[in-house]
Amino acid sequence: MKIMVTAKRVTDPDARIRLKSDLSGIDSEGVEYKLNPFCENAIEEALRLKAKHDGEIVAVSIGGAEATTEMRRALAMGCDRGILVDGADDALDADLVARTIAKLYEKEQPDLIIFGKQAVDGDSNQAAQLCAEYLGLGQATFAAHPNGSAGMTGGEPGLAVADGKVTAMREVDGGVEVVEVAMPAVVSADLRLNEPRLPTLPNIMKAKRKPLEQLSMADLGVDVALKVKTIAFSNPPERKAGVRVADVDELLNKLVNEAKVL
Amino acid sequence: MSDILVVAEHAAGSLKKGTLHVIDFARQAAAKLGGGFDLVVVGPQAAAVAAQAGGYGAGKVYTVEGPAFEQYTAPAYAHAIAEVAAHAGAKVIAGASSSLGKDCLPRVAVKLGAGMASDVVGIGSGNGLTYLRPMWAGNVVGEVEITTAIHVLTVRTAEFDTVEASGGASPVEAVASTFDQATLKQRVVEFRPTVSARPDLSEAAFVVAGGRGVKSKENFSLINDLADALGAAVGATRAAVDAEFIENDYQIGQTGKIIAPDLYIGLGISGAIQHLAGMKASKVIVAVNKDEEAPIFTVADYGLVADLFKVAPELTEKLRKLKSQ
Lengths: 262, 325
Ligand SMILES: Cc1cc2nc3c(=O)[nH]c(=O)nc-3n(C[C@H](O)[C@H](O)[C@H](O)COP(=O)(O)OP(=O)(O)OC[C@H]3O[C@@H](n4cnc5c(N)ncnc54)[C@H](O)[C@@H]3O)c2cc1C
Ligand SMILES: Nc1ncnc2c1ncn2[C@@H]1O[C@H](COP(=O)(O)O)[C@@H](O)[C@H]1O
Description:
heterodimer, A: 7 helices, B: 8 helices, binds flavin-adenine dinucleotide, binds adenosine monophosphate
C-alpha cells in the first residue's frame, strides 16, 4: 500500500502569536516553527498502517527552503521519502495547496492521502476536502481514535484498511460516525487519532540520507492564482483580566449583584 | 432569486438552532449586497424542515430529498447544494462552522469554482464584501478577500445572534437532484450518538467546564452537579477528553466547540491558548484554579484561587439554595 501524507511547517502551536505593530503580519521574532501537530497524527497513522500492510509512505509539503527541517522530521518519524514543492505561505491558499497535492497524487498514485485536519496557523480546515473533490475521491475527515466516547473504549483503531476500503471513526457534532470509504481515498487526521511518536536519534541520522525531491509549481503545471487572499490583519478584542474573589460567597455576590448573570 | 444561499442544518425533522445564527449573518451580508437570502434544506424530512425554516424571511426555501440524501455524506450533499446554488444564482453560499459545514462546503466550493473562507466572524468594513476570520487559534483576525465571483463560507455561530421568526412563510421549491448514487464511494456504517439531557453546549446560556484538574471520570460528577444546579451545559478541555473524563463532543476550543455563553465557569483548567480560542467570547468568565499563575486568570472576570474539590460542592450547594429562594 502506498500512502501520501502532508507535512506542513507552521508556527509553534503553543507560541503566543502577535501582530507586528504596523499590523502587516505576524511578528515571527523569536517564534519557533514546527511540524503541524495534525500532520504528525497523519504521519503516525500512515506508519501504523504501513506496519500492518507494508508499502511506502511519501511525505509531501509546500513551503520555502526552510520547510526542509519539517520534511526531515517527517522522514525521521519514518516516512520513506519526501517531496517539497516550492511555495511561500503568503502565496498559498487552501485551494492552491489542494490543487498542488492533487497533481502530486496523479504523479504518485497512492492508495490513501492522509492530511492533517487543519493547519494551526491559518486554521482553514479545507485542504483535504478540496483535494478529495478535485480528485473525485471519497473522504473521511476528522478521523480520531474513539477514546473518550461513550461505549467506545473497545480498542478499535481510528483508521483501518481492509478489502480496498478504509474505515474511519470521525469526531462529529453529536457523537462519533463510522464511515467506510473505497480506496483511493482522502483522510484528514484529528489529534485524538493517535499519539505521534518522537523520532529516535538513529532515525534522525537515517532521515538525512532519505530522498527529498524538490519541485516547483511550474514543474507540476499548477495555476498559482489564489482564490482567497488575506488583505489585512487586526488584533482580536482584548479581554481585561478581572478581579480575584476570596471565596464562594464573594463570587456569588459578584455574579448576582455586579455581573447580574444569576 | 437572492444573492445569498444559507445551508440549513437539521436533525430528526427539526431545524438546528445554528442555522438561525447563519441567517443573522446572511441578513448582514444581504444588507451590504443589497439583495436577500434563500435557504436550502437537503436530506430526510426536508419538506417538514422547510416549513419551520420558512418564517425567517428567506426569499425561497429549496429542498432536496431522495435515497442518496437519507444519510449525510459530503460528496452527495455537496453535489445537491452546488446544484441548488447554481439554480438559485447564488453569489454567496454560507453554512455553519459545524462538522457538517466544515466537511461538506469545501467540496461545494470546488464544484462552483469558488474560493472559501472558514469560520467567518464578521464582515469587513470596506466597500466590497470581505470577511473577518480568526487565525492562529484566534490570536489574530484576518480580513480575507475572495477573488472568485462566487464565495463559499462557514460562519461561526457564536459570533452571530439567533434571529427571531419574522412571520410569513417563504415559498418552497423542491429541486430534483441529478446526483448519481452509483458514483458515491463512501457510506456511513454507524453513528454513535452522545446522549445528554443537559442543554446543548453550543447554545447554552451557562456553561460549566472541567479540565485535567478534575483528575478522574468519577470526579467529573462534581462538574455535572454544578452544571445541573445552574441549568448549565457541560464542557471540557482537550486534556479532560483525552483522559476520558467525558466524550469528545464536549470539548471547547480551537479544535472543539466555539462558545459564547452569558456565563462560563471553568474549574481545574489552566487556560491554554487553544482552550481560550473556544471560550474567550463568553460574556462573563469565572475561573477556579489552585494555581494563582494559571493563564486562565488573564481572561477571567472573577478568579478564585482555590481547590476545586472544595469550591465545586460548596458552589453547587449555595446555587441550589439561591435558586430555591
Ligand atoms: C493543535 C492543538 C489543538 C488543541 N485544541 C484544544 C482544544 O480545542 N481545546 C482544549 O481545551 N485544548 C486544546 N489543546 C490542548 C491545550 O494545549 C492544553 O493542553 C489543554 O487545554 C489543557 O487542558 P487543561 O487546562 O484541562 O489541563 P492542564 O493544562 O493540565 O491544567 C490543569 C489545571 O488544573 C489545575 N488544578 C489541578 N488540581 C486542581 C484543584 N484541585 N483545584 C483547582 N485547580 C486544580 C492546575 O493548576 C492546572 O492549571 C490543543 C493543543 C494543540 C497542540
Ligand atoms: N503548505 C502545505 N504543505 C503541506 N501540507 C499542507 C499545506 N497546507 C495545508 N496542508 C495540509 O492540509 C491540512 C489542512 O490545512 P488547512 O486547510 O490549511 O487548514 C493541514 O493539516 C496539512 O496537512
